[in-house]
Structures are given as structure tokens and as C-alpha cells.
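Give me the fold.
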Amino acid sequence: MSSTTPTEINYAKFAGFNSLAAAILFSILYAALSGWFIFRFLRHKTRVDVTLILFSLIRCVAFALRAAMIKGKGATSLSMFVTVEVLFSAGFFAILMATLEAIILQMTVSRKHFEGLQRRVVQSGWLFRGVLLAAVALTIAGIVETSNNDSGGATLTKVATIIFLVASVWLVFSSVINFTSATSLGKSMAMLFVIISALILVREAYMTATMDNTSARTNEAYWYPLSEVPAILCIFLYAVVGLFRRRSSEENEEEAKELRVVV
């Protein structure tokens, strides 16, 4: 009697991992960004930079593993595939947290009292973090359950995706409130946060629009420009613009005693 060996699933092909060059390029870019943020943290030691380091390192590892799977190393490993999916999906919470922290920091640097919408934004920090952590937990649970052929996993990941979208909308709203209330010294920085928040919203809108369409979500022709390009543009904006702590004895102490917007 002859026996047949079950065919191994190539998870890289199944998930649409095709472009080796793109995966390697993004991994290198995030490695360089990680090094830059580490250097900047050693000089200025701010919490936002810690979050940016975390995000950049997660993305660097995720793209490196994606490249390895495309090359065939671990392409049939379910555990490696789950790891890659978790890193890409759950790791994005870091950039949302960093952006809201930066917005709140700018709003509080020169003002001690807040009213109306400004107050709501400043007070939303802890709730925002809690909601994002809940979304991360749902994402991880959903991916793991889906990998075990549990139909409930898809529901969990959809709920997490919607939470991330709502959080992104709140981020855009917070950035606009920050811009309208910023001093003349901080307008350009506040506009930067509006742009970053809008890029994050583009990414989350794409993820939400394709949550019932696996082929569209895994198609690299859409995934890179609508998910990963907006993400890395956000990090580049944090990296290349002069987001450094600056002290100036020439500025009005009440208005900008310490222009410490991000780092």
C-alpha cells in the first residue's frame, strides 16, 4: 500500500510575499532609522524616541523575516508566518502612541490650563493607550486563532482593525485641534503632526477597507503604497525634520520656555 505525504503549505506565497527587493530595502531603511533614533535618544532621552525606536526595530525585523520567507527560508513554517503577521499588524500601535504623545507634549509645553476640546485631547492619553493595547491583544489573539483554523480569529482581527481606524480618526482630530491652538512658534510643528496623522489614517483606512478582501490586502501592488509607504513616511518625517529639544533665552518664557515638541 502506498502512502502520500501531505503537501506543505508555502505561507509566503499564500500571503502574497513576492518582492524580495522591497522587503530588503524596507528592512535596511528601518535599521538605519532605528540607529538614528537610538543616537537621538542618547542625546535627549525622551519617551517619544523610545516609542519610535520600538516601532522601527519591529518593522526592521518584520521585513527581514518577510525577506527570509520569500527566499524560501521558513516559507513553510506556520510559526514564522504567524510571527511576521503579528509584527506587522500589532507593531503599528507604537507610531500611533508616539504621535499622540508628541501632540499632547506640544499642547502642554507652553500652556497650563485647557478648556473644551484641548482639554479632551490632553486627557485622552491614558485611554488612548489602553484602547490601543486592547487592539494589539485582539490582533494577536485573532492571528493565532486564525492560524489554528478557528473562525473566531477573523472576527477578532476585524474588531481590532476597526479600533485602530477609530484611534486614527481621533489622532487626526487631535492634531487639528493642536494646530488651531498652537502659538505662532509652533504652527509648523503642529502642521507636521497633522500630516503624520493623515498618513496614519490612510494606512488604517486601507486596512479597514480590505479586511474582508484578503486578495486585495495581500496584493503588494496595493499593500506597499497604501500601508507601508505611509508608515515609513511618518518615521522619516520624525527623523529628518528638526524635532529636537531646543532652549532659547531669547524667547518669551511663558510662550516657549522650552520648545520641546518631540524630543
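The longest helix spans residues 152-181.
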